[in-house]
């Protein structure tokens, strides 16, 4: 952890900024894949720092986050997972942090029940914008983190 007023950009190891950059990159990949007609969903349902080490005037030295990638296509899943690892290395270097993407928990492709997709109470029932229920498989990486290398 560092104090922002005393750490100029070349000396920061900002895990929060690096994690946000990685998540932004993955969202852009998601949109590109979707524009190309691939089914893909990218979610980060958890993102946090150590409460004992964060504050409004501190640079958090470590983040923990979960990535959830879903698609019925193994080709899409593998391409996005490879891109995520490459982006993590590139972004980590730029922000002077290391990413530990952790082990993945994979499941085989499974199509969401058609009755659930079509149900008025289904996944798109409360959507305020364009929504489509994507039949998905899950590959979830848990225990992901970005941290200042020793």
Question: How would you characterize this protein structure?
Answer:
The protein has 150 residues and is α+β, with helices and mostly antiparallel strands. The chain has one domain: Alpha-Beta Plaits. 32% of the residues lie in helices and 23% in strands. Strands 1, 2, 3, 4 and 5 form a five-stranded antiparallel sheet that branches. Helix 1 (15-35) runs antiparallel to helix 2. The longest helix has 22 residues, at 74-95. The two termini are 12 Å apart. The relative contact order is 0.22.
What does the average pLDDT come to? 78
Indicate the CATH topology: Alpha-Beta Plaits
Q: Provide the low-confidence segments as ranges.
A: none
- Main β-sheet, in a few words? 5 strands, antiparallel
The Cα radius of gyration reads 18 Å
Globally, the shape reads: elongated
Q: What's the SSE blueprint?
A:
Layout: H1 15-35, E1 41-49, E2 62-70, H2 74-95, E3 98-100, E4 104-106, H3 114-118, E5 138-147
Helix pairs in contact: 1-2
Brief description of this entry?
The chain has helices at 15-35, 74-95, 114-118; strands at residues 41-49, 62-70, 98-100, 104-106, 138-147. With 150 residues, it is of the alpha+beta class.
